[in-house]
Amino acid sequence: MAKCLIVEDNLVNREIFVELLGDEGHDIVETSNGQDAIRALDERAFDLIVLDLYMPDVDGFAVGKHARASERNRDVKILVVSAADGSDLTRTKSEFAADAIVRKPLDLEEFISVSSQLLSEEVV
């Protein structure tokens, strides 16, 4: 069972991620904003972060950078799920080394496939 942090300000999207990963038996922590996500990252280690980029106050870029800078979560797998355009998606690779990107609108099969692949690399 993996520990997953869902960082998504849209309630419907967050509920979908929680259901999909929860159905696989993973331990889920969900946050609706970047500030709460940073607090969660400071409190515990995660195997996967599902990260939206565009959120009020603290955005996904800041959350990703914080995760990579922390001793506890520097090696966490980061799955960006965003409607961002090409330049912002490129920034995710250069600013915090996102491990994978799934574009919105969400393709459920793609999300399940990519998240499963990332977790199979991390969790034995």
Structure commentary:
There is one protein chain. This protein is α/β, with parallel strands linked by helices and 124 residues long. It has a single domain, classed as Response regulator (Rossmann fold). The chain has five helices and five strands; from the N terminus they run E-H-E-H-E-H-E-H-E-H. It has helices spanning 11-23, 34-43, 60-69, 86-96, 108-122; strands spanning 3-7, 27-31, 48-51, 77-82, 100-103.
Summarize the structure.
This protein is α/β, with parallel strands linked by helices. The chain has 5 helices and 5 strands.
CATH homologous superfamily label: Response regulator
Mean pLDDT over the residues: 94
* Name of the CATH class: Alpha Beta
* Overall strand count: 5
Helical residue percent band: 40-55%
Overall number of domains:
1
Keywords:
single chain, 124 residues, alpha/beta, Rossmann fold, five-stranded parallel sheet, 5 helices, 48% helix
Present the secondary structure layout.
Layout: E1 3-7, H1 11-23, E2 27-31, H2 34-43, E3 48-51, H3 60-69, E4 77-82, H4 86-96, E5 100-103, H5 108-122
Parallel strand pairs: 1-2, 1-3, 3-4, 4-5
